[in-house]
Design goal:
Radius of gyration: 27 Å
Shape: rod-shaped
Helix content: 25-40%
Strand order of the largest sheet: 1-2
Number of helices: 1
Order of helices and strands: HEE
Structural class: alpha+beta
Number of strands: 2
Largest sheet: 2 strands, antiparallel
Distance between the termini: 54 Å
Strand content: 25-35%
Length: 70
């Protein structure tokens, strides 16, 4: 036999769930809004402005950038 929940109880649970979501939404972070962002790059010092592929013996300057969003 099926039991029917009172409308007041269902409404109360919905309101509590909504309040919890609104209270804690500032503490959650998705990947798109990550607090720490970083990236890597390099410069081939041996070839400077000429460019081309990296070959054994080339001198590389490796750069790491990071940003902390508060």
């Amino acid at each position: 036999m099926k039991t029917i929940l009172p409308v007041g109880l269902v409404l109360r649970r919905f309101v509590w769930a909504l309040l919890l979501i609104l209270l804690f939404r500032g503490y959650t972070h998705a990947q798109a809004t990550a607090m720490l962002k970083w990236g890597n790059s390099y410069i081939n010092l041996s070839k400077k402005a000429v460019g081309g592929p990296v070959e054994p013996g080339d001198s590389l300057e490796i750069r790491v950038n990071s940003s902390l969003a508060l």
